[in-house]
């Protein structure tokens, strides 16, 4: 009898040891960010945010006793490199999910791989085609609000100002092409007239020819769609040409870096849809995001000595979505995918996320505030 008790006790001990070993394991997630290159203003704060959040989580004991490890690579904004590094993350590093890439073009390239290998991808880019059609993107999610949401926010504001004749100036990369498509489709539905439809290349350094055409188009306003440095150059060119019509930018420049690159004098009066992080100090105290935004900015300033940016917020959102999925469903890729899709009313930096089998972004018009550059800073438009 004593022998049986001893054997039973040893078996129980072994089970407890095995359970403890599992709890003490490490969950690996990947990060693909454009830390260097032309899109570094996106990737650098994304990388820093993810590193900061992982360190904070591990200091608090991890998730259910398991530590989180972020394996992060710099894509330099190159789609081919992004695919190679995604392959490395999955094959060699054995990650259970990937956060990023930073840009639409990279995300479109990588998602073909992650869909095939059934690894959740939470993109930090805005193009609507990253997640749609959802039936073809069952393993793909993204944190920036869809570009059609930003486009609608602008057009709704323009309608109130009775600005019906629009000039478009969009960049020819994935982000710009998607924005141009959404703007044209929504403008037609809402009764706007597109009187000029100009484009520019991601590496162009002077857009005065396009702006000269726009100046002669009798447009009521111009909408520029791109990410820096292009929009900053356009802003300077508009000032130099003396173009007087209202200027709208996309959410792709919703950080102080845009004002700095364009110069406050040239950017004065420019309007755009921005995430609430850019103006959290102006939000009412009962806003559900206000506390989280304040805490994120304070933590980022303490860690890196500069204010948090909307773009770093995209990585914050992805981290929160993934860790929430792990807590609620489990840490296998399939469990994380299911947990992401079942996210409900998750308060984060870019908005309040509610995913579904038909929506792998989960944000609506409430994700943005219309803002205006005023004396080198943002001000909320009423």
Strand and helix layout:
Layout lengths: L1 H22 L2 E8 L6 H20 L7 E8 L4 H13 L6 E2 L4 H14 L3 E3 L16 E3 L4 H14 L4 E7 L2 H17 L2 E8 L7 H8 L5 E5 L4 H12 L5 E3 L6 H7 L1 H4 L3 E5 L14 H15 L5 H19 L4 H9 L4 E2 L4 E2 L14 E7 L2 E4 L2
Parallel strand pairs: 1-2, 1-3, 3-4, 4-5, 6-7, 6-8, 8-9
Antiparallel strand pairs: 10-13, 11-12, 13-14
Global shape:
globular
Specify the number of helices. Answer: 13
CATH topology of the largest domain: Rossmann fold
| Mean of pLDDT | 93
Query: How would you spell out the order of helices and strands?
Result: HEHEHEHEEHEHEHEHEHHEHHHEEEE
User: pLDDT under 50 segments (min length 5)?
Assistant: 1-23
CATH class group of the largest domain: Alpha Beta
Q: Measured on Cα atoms, how large is the radius of gyration? A: 23 Å
* Helix-residue proportion: 40-55%
Count structural domains: 2
- N/C terminus separation: 80 Å
CATH architecture of the largest domain: 3-Layer(aba) Sandwich
Q: What portion of residues belong to β-strands?
A: 15-25%
**How many strand elements?**
14
Order of adjacent strands in the largest pleated sheet: 2-1-3-4-5
Helix and strand composition category: alpha/beta
Major sheet attributes: 5 strands, parallel
Corresponding CATH superfamily of the largest domain: Response regulator
């Amino acid at each position: 009898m004593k022998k049986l008790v001893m054997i039973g006790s040893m078996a129980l001990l072994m089970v407890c040891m095995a359970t403890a070993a599992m709890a003490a394991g490490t969950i690996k997630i990947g990060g693909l960010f454009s830390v260097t290159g032309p899109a570094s203003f996106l990737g650098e704060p994304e990388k820093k945010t993810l590193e900061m959040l992982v360190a904070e989580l591990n200091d608090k004991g991890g998730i259910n006793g398991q530590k989180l490890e972020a394996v992060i690579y710099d894509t330099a904004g190159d789609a081919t490199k992004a695919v190679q590094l995604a392959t490395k993350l999955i094959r060699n590093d054995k990650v259970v999910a990937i956060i990023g890439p930073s840009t639409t073009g990279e995300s479109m390239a990588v998602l073909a791989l992650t869909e095939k290998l059934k690894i959740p991808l939470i993109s930090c880019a805005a193009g609507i085609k990253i997640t749609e059609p959802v039936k073809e993107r069952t393993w793909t999610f993204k944190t920036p609000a869809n570009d059609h949401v930003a486009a609608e926010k602008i057009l709704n504001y323009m309608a109130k100002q009775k600005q019906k004749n629009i000039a478009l100036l969009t960049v020819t990369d994935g982000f710009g092409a998607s924005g141009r498509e959404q703007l044209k489709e929504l403008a037609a539905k809402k009764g706007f007239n597109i009187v000029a439809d100009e484009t520019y290349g991601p590496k162009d350094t002077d857009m005065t020819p396009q702006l000269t055409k726009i100046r002669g188009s009798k447009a009521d306003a111009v909408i520029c769609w791109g990410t820096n440095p292009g929009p900053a150059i356009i802003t300077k060119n508009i000032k130099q040409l003396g173009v007087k019509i209202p200027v709208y930018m996309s959410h792709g420049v919703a950080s102080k870096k845009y004002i700095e690159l364009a110069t406050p004098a040239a950017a004065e009066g420019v309007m755009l849809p921005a995430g609430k992080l850019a103006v959290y100090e102006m939000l009412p105290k009962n806003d559900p995001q206000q506390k989280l935004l304040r805490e994120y900015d304070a933590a980022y300033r303490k860690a890196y000595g500069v204010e948090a940016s909307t773009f770093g917020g995209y990585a914050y959102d992805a981290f929160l979505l993934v860790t929430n999925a792990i807590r609620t469903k489990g840490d296998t890729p399939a469990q994380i995918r299911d947990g992401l899709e079942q996210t409900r009313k998750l308060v984060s930096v870019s908005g309040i996320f509610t995913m579904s089998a038909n929506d792998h972004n989960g944000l609506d018009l409430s994700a943005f505030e219309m803002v205006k550059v005023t004396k080198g800073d943002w001000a909320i438009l009423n």
